[in-house]
Amino acid sequence: MPRQVFMLPDLGEGLTEAELVNWLVKVGDQVRVDQPVAEVETAKSLVEVPSPYAGTVAVLHGAAGETIDVGKPLISVDAEGAPAAETYRTEERAGAKPPAVEVGEAADSGSGNVLIGYGTSGGHGAGRRTRKPRRASAGPQVRTTAEPAPAGPRRAPLVVSPLVRKLARDGGLRIEQIQGSGRDGLVLRRDVEAALAGSAAPEAAPAAETASARPAAAAGAAGETDPRSGLRIASRTPMRGVRKAVAEAMSRSRTEIPEATVWVDVDATALLELRAQLKQRDPDNTPGLLAFIARFVLAGLARYPELNSRIEDGEIVAFDGVNLGFAAQTERGLLVPSIRGADRLSARQLDAEIRRLAAVARDGKASPAELTSGTFTLNNYGVFGVDGSAAIINYPEAAILGVGRIIDRPWVVGGELAVRKVTELVLAFDHRICDGGTAGGFLRYVADAIENPGSVLADL
Description:
Oligomer: single chain
Region (Disordered): 89-155, 200-237
Largest sheet: 7 strands, mixed
CATH class of the largest domain: Alpha Beta
Number of domains: 2
InterPro entries: 2-oxoacid_DH_actylTfrase (IPR001078), 2-oxoacid_DH_E2_comp (IPR050743), Biotin_lipoyl (IPR000089), CAT-like_dom_sf (IPR023213), E3-bd_dom_sf (IPR036625), PSBD (IPR004167), Single_hybrid_motif (IPR011053)
Distance between the termini: 64 Å
Structural class: alpha+beta
GO molecular function: acetyltransferase activity; lipoic acid binding
CATH topology of the largest domain: Chloramphenicol Acetyltransferase
Enzyme class: transferase
Number of strands: 21
CATH architecture of the largest domain: 2-Layer Sandwich
Mean pLDDT: 77
CATH superfamily of the largest domain: Chloramphenicol acetyltransferase-like domain
EC number: 2.3.1.-
Helix content: 25-40%
Low-confidence stretches: 82-156, 199-220
Radius of gyration: 26 Å
């Protein structure tokens, strides 16, 4: 039986590595095409990686907790026959369009699962999917490689990442003319960059410098003395996964977006009373406060659509609809799943989606599309017991609205002092897209809706 080596795929998120969380198979197990064999954690989600081969598991390349580079071996399978992704493997090696697959060909070799980019023959075909420029893919993209083919008169280049191909194409280079420094001649990004710079391709990294060796090296740094503070270093923890992605996004937001902030204190007493009345009538079907506020936010964005846009290549891109993101704190860090088409949903429907997506995010099952498709973000940091926050815009969006805790505070009502339920709304916005008049108008609209929810809900 031929042994097929399945490389860790490019998961379609512009990432170069992923952490191996858990193996779903063991050596000696029989696997079928499209059967999940491992769980890997990327910067955006926990992803099950399915096998493009059917056969017997021969080698598991790595242990749980290790970080594996894209394009490095993930699993080896003693295959029973030709893999469903063979035509796609040929396309990835040569950069050529894969041959068409006849209808009904290998009808029982796959399930049609298109999670991994090439599709199997169970109804979706093996054709390559086209990626739009500058758009995140809605699903992982898999690249596979079998054992190296014997050298011929013209050896096709090994290319795993479409980003590498695009970098070479944009630089006017032919990928087959670039000497790869990766395993088996794999062309890496550094090879293309070196070629563009007119220098020789860098030497391949030493074999000992693997993903599994990096954590050990980091741990070995513990105990040394920090020259700046003079204190002993207790540990060094590499930034990766969600924490690394959050750090990069926040840094880019602060660097590229000239943000401004406006805020207002709001009397939420009427909203709390309205919800209490609804809960008495229908205790099992009453939306949460965040769903009501979300509904008011969506109504405000309909009046001030500038805040539901982004800047892209020197243009302001406006959207027909709102994908409302909301910040969710999980064990893996802060995630922002988004409710697609939120502007078309009622408060009850919004509440259901908020609960569903929050649960999915906490379980690490949110898809990259659910975590990257937002156009405006709502952040309820009041759950942490704080009143306000100078929020950072969720790049590349144009604004983020934060809601603080609701507490008893003295408030003037009808010329007399009273105790009311008060919260603080904070809006951070991209000052390139709009000015204070638009931001203030939106914030005041949402505040008025919270203070007089009945009149606003009647128009929604």
